[in-house]
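Action item from last meeting closed. Structure (485 res):
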């Protein structure tokens, strides 16, 4: 394996942090430095001798064309006469609120070519793109450790950087899902984690660079993989209620208590009392800025995470007294319209479930009364966020029992009914999918359910409708399913 490289470095960087010290160290090691206009000027201003790239190639350097030349390409890709390429790319990934014409000018062409060429010819060339790499490279060069294996590792990192950069651009120009042939995600390592779902699994949270400022952790222990999975459900459930103050308490990616209230404090207390036993060690999501009064109530209990679109100053001060509590502020726009998950080495992609029912079909002899109607609407919003198969027992503005993640629908009803035994009447039931048999309705009736909302669509729908009529229950069909696997 080749242990040495030609001591000639090409430096062309948009991010100039650390480049002066790096170039000074390279010069001290005997490297000749070639640089593009802005970089060359910066180095010369700091007393570092550098050859301007246009002088080196005998060509010219324009606004859009700086490094593209046959001479440069050959010396990197073929001969290795340029032994070190130092380049990071125009910051397309940092731009906000710019027009298409402005964004176009932030698409790097020459820099990508330099990095790709150097990485491809790693047997003769080393590549660097990140200021965080500079110190290690200098130390390795000083100790004759700039081996082919070391350069291969740099090449792997460079290919990852290039791929990420191209994906960020592709996302900007992205098409609708039904026309998008290729799918990829331009996410950058954002939060390192101790482990994943279990301690033996490595994990990290990756997030698009532009979106990272919308995910703020104000305090507490290091957030975990499972915390983030649960936090999305907590935030999403609470934000189903756009025009009301809402709170959702979550355990294991499914709600255990959800409520609305005249005040945020009332919404929290009602959500907590819906299943105070399951709430222990759970996550709490809000759809509005958390107040100091709400924080005082939260402080009395043990939770892992509080997530909301904002926190009042005194609320933060109160919550931070619980040293282990993770306090997450999330920009609602981070609940992106597309969701995806890896399977079999590929990616399943779908639109986020934003379906709601404005018109439903009453299929029983009795229509729901005004109270039941409001409670049914509430249950329908909550059941969308439970793990299927699931049903939600609710009163107006609060859950009283949730049976989620069951392999049979009647089993889900049994669990929800057991949780709501302290109520004998005034309960409605929402189901994320149709009832295949009447046993679910029969069991719900024993649990005090007076009205049901469900998609319908079973070949035994009439049997289920007849059961509701026998129990004087109202039932409406939404003709929309809410599975969440």
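Sequence:
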């Amino acid at each position: 394996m080749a242990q040495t490289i030609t001591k000639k470095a090409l430096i062309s960087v948009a991010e100039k942090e650390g480049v002066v010290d790096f170039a000074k160290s390279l010069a001290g090691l005997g490297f000749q430095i070639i640089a593009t206009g802005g970089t060359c000027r910066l180095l010369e201003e700091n007393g570092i001798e550098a050859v301007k790239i246009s002088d080196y190639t005998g060509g010219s350097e324009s606004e859009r064309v700086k490094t593209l030349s046959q001479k440069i390409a050959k010396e990197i890709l073929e001969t290795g006469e340029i032994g070190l390429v130092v380049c990071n790319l125009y910051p397309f990934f940092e731009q906000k609120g710019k027009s298409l014409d402005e964004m176009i000018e932030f698409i790097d062409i020459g820099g990508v070519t330099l990095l790709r060429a150097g990485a491809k010819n790693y047997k003769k060339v080393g590549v660097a793109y990140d200021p965080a790499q500079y110190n290690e490279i200098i130390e390795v060069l000083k100790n004759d450790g700039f081996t082919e294996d070391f350069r291969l590792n740099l090449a792997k990192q460079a290919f990852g950087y290039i791929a990420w950069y191209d994906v960020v651009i592709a996302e900007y120009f992205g098409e609708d899902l039904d026309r998008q042939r290729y799918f990829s995600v331009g996410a950058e390592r954002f939060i390192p984690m101790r482990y994943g779902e279990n301690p033996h699994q490595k994990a990290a949270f990756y997030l698009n660079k532009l979106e990272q400022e919308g995910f703020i952790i104000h305090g507490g222990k290091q957030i975990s993989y499972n915390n983030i999975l649960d936090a999305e459900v907590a935030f999403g459930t609470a934000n189903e209620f756009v025009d009301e103050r809402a709170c959702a308490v979550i355990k294991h990616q499914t709600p255990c208590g959800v409520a609305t209230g005249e005040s945020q404090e009332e919404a929290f207390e009602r959500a907590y009392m819906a299943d105070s036993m399951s709430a222990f060690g759970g996550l709490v999501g809000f759809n509005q800025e958390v107040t100091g009064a709400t924080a005082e109530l939260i402080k009395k209990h043990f939770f892992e995470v509080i997530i909301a679109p904002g926190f009042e100053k005194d609320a933060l001060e109160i919550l931070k007294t619980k040293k282990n509590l993770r306090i997450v502020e999330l920009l609602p726009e981070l609940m992106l319209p597309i969701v995806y998950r890896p399977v079999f080495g590929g990616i399943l992609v779908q639109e986020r479930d934003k379906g709601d029912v404005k018109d439903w079909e009453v299929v029983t002899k009795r229509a729901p009364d005004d109270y039941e109607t409001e409670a049914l609407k509430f249950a329908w919003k909550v059941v969308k966020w439970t793990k299927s198969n699931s049903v939600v027992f609710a009163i107006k503005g609060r859950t009283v029992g949730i049976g989620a993640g069951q392999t049979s629908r009647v089993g889900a009803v049994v669990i929800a009914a057991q949780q709501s035994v302290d109520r004998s009447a005034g309960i409605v039931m929402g189901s994320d999918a149709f009832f295949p048999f009447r046993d679910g309705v029969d069991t719900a009736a024993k649990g005090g359910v007076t009205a049901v909302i469900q998609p319908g669509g079973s070949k035994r729908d009439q049997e289920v409708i007849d059961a509701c009529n026998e129990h004087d229950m109202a039932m409406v069909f939404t003709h929309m399913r809410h599975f969440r696997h």
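Note appended to the action item: The mean pLDDT is 93.
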